[in-house]
Amino acid sequence: MALKNRLKEHRARLNVNQSELGKLAGVSRQTISLIERGDYSPSVTLALKLAKIFGVAVEDIFDYEEDV
User: Fold this and answer.
1) d(CA 41, CA 13)
2) Residues 6-16, buried b or exposed e (16+ Cβ, 10 A)?
3) C-alpha distances in angstroms, 58 versus 7, 34, 68?
4) Residue 47 Cα to chain centre, angstroms
5) What is the CA radius of gyration of the chain?
6) How many Å is the maximal CA-CA distance in the chain?
7) Strands (E) located in the chain
8) What pLDDT score does 68 carry?
9) What is the pLDDT at residue 2?
10) For the residues 18-26, what does the mean pLDDT come to?
11) What's residue 18's pLDDT?
């Protein structure tokens, strides 16, 4: 199971760094970095916050792919 994300792309589009996005979302820069690397799956609440910040649907940022 893998949660793929396009967080870095959306962050670049908004022209904010990891620290700035972390502040907007109420998490640390490290949390944003871990999500971008795929080493951490955000809570539903955090995923919804990020989607709201970018003005997109959660599915535009995150995509779940099952291992075959």
Assistant:
1) 22
2) bbeebbeeeeb
3) 10, 18, 24
4) 6
5) 11
6) 37
7) 2-5, 62-65
8) 64
9) 83
10) 98
11) 98
Angle between the N-to-C axes of helices 44-54 and 7-14, in degrees from 0 to 180, rounded to the nearest 10: 40
- Tally of residues, the chain: 68
Across 39-56, average pLDDT? 97
DSSP state letter for 17: -
Run of H or E including 35 = helix 29-37
The single-letter DSSP state of residue 62 is E
Q: Looking at per-residue confidence, does 50 or 64 come out higher?
A: 50
User: Which residue type sits at 24?
Assistant: L
The structure tokens listed for 43 are: 């809570």
**AA identity, residue 11:** R
pLDDT at 16 over 70: yes
